[in-house]
Amino acid sequence: MKLYHRTTREAARSILRDGFRNGRGRYLTDREWEGVWLAYPAPDETAGARGPVLLAVRIPVAVIRPYEWVEEGKGYREFLVPTDLVNRYGPVTVEALDPVAELSCASCGWRRTVPTGFIAWQREQHRLTCPGDVTAQNLLDDDVLAPAFRSKG
Question: Is the per-residue pLDDT at 8 higher than 60?
Fold first, then answer.
């Protein structure tokens, strides 16, 4: 089964280089859990997923089934899988790489990385507090992620 993990660019670089690491949390329960969150189909922000990079890994259904978190009415399947199990399967692939830009203002030193669709809005928001010009640098040509994304197809 092809499972997905949405994350930040920095975390994706680390995962591609060193493998997944355990996350820890209570996840609205009374005990602490640890593992890697994977989903099917690919998660978006309505599922609480954040980040411009979508990674994928194939794990057999029989192996992944015991780790499913079942909730009624959810439009996707979600799994909290031990890191060592996820890292046994692979390779991890980059399925989507949302274009982002780094915005900066020389006047006040402000910096932010945003999806390219939000550049104009971020510039307007920044102008509410600083009259300086905001410049944008496209970060799509990431030295690690972009080649991994391009080679998958």
Answer: yes
